[in-house]
Amino acid sequence: MNTHTTSHHPIRLIAVDLDGTLLNTDHHITPRTRQALSVAGQRGIQVIMATGRPRLTTIPYLQELGLTTPGVFMQGLNIYNGDGSLRHNVLMDSETVRKTAAFAVEHDLTVMIYNHELIATRYRNAFTDILQAYHEPLPHEFGDKIIDLPDQHPVNKLFFIDDPSRIPQIRAALTERIGSHSTLQTSMPQFLEVLPAGASKGAGLKWLLEDMGISPSEVLAIGDGENDIEMIQLARIGVAMGNGNAHLKAEADYITLSNNEDGVAHAVEKFALGL
Fold it and tell me: pTM of the full predicted structure?
């Protein structure tokens, strides 16, 4: 649990995760949540999205909420301005990308490789098509030549998609292979993300706050996954969704209702709006 809650600074910024947090299980923003964030904005509180997704797939939700603020995307690796221009970009070293892609080929695993413009995979399959539910464009297929991708393109992150029961085994084997050269985390049970060492949503949010001149003591952060831990630790008030990851809940200052019960609205009303 973080220790920032003793501060009496008013909330100036709300950082909110998307899937499993802002969105309910039907991938919708509920009217109450939309209203709470709208009132926050009217009171001068900046609302930013902080998600593992590429920005492209979040545009409908940004537009629905009328957000013109910067946002934290791709687990903090890309930070965009409200107009869609890239503000900050963190890349993986090419040798770690190569070793991770080779691991995928060797074990015949589904791997996705991202930069802020490209999504690549070995071959499309049922696992890669899961991402269509998140409005991602179809990935480019590279076959086993995906090992050579870092020679042609900079890379922000990779992630594996598999049966949730196999992810811990894949994670252990990959940790042994690439060791301290990356950060591994699970945003959802079927996803294992491979990021540059030290990268996280929290690190991305910290960079953005410093750039905006806002203190973490003025931030409310809300999330549901392991990939939100650093973000809620950074914020003065870190909130875990009722449907959230157990490790996240253990670090949270407060556990709100689930994403199907207006959990974001409940937290915003309680901690930012004083309702």
Answer: 0.89
Residue 136 confidence (pLDDT) = 80
Q: How is residue 151 written in tokens? A: 């020679």
Whether residue 18 contacts residue 57, with contact meaning beta carbons closer than 8 Å, is answered with no
Helix (H) or strand (E) holding 251: helix 246-251
Whether 187 has a pLDDT exceeding 80, the answer reads no
With contact defined as beta carbons under 8 Å apart, do 208 and 72 qualify? yes
Q: Are residues 57 and 134 in the same domain?
A: no
Residue 89 in 3-state DSSP? strand
Q: How many domains does the chain have?
A: 2
Catalytically active residues, by annotation: 17
Question: Which secondary-structure segment (H or E) carries 201?
Answer: helix 201-212
CA–CA separation, 106 and 11 (whole Å)? 49
Q: What is the CATH number of the domain that holds 45?
A: 3.40.50.1000
DSSP helix/strand/coil, 269: helix
Q: Which phi and psi angles does 115 have, rounded to 5°?
A: -130, -175
Domain-ending residue, one of 161, 196, 231: 196
Domain that holds residue 229: 4-89+200-271
Among 147, 161, 170, smallest CA distance to 96 is for 147
Is residue 240 pLDDT above 80, yes or no? yes
Reported as type and span, the H/E element at residue 169 is helix 167-178
Q: Write down which residue in 161, 179, 196 finishes a domain.
A: 196
Domain CATH for 179:
3.30.1240.10
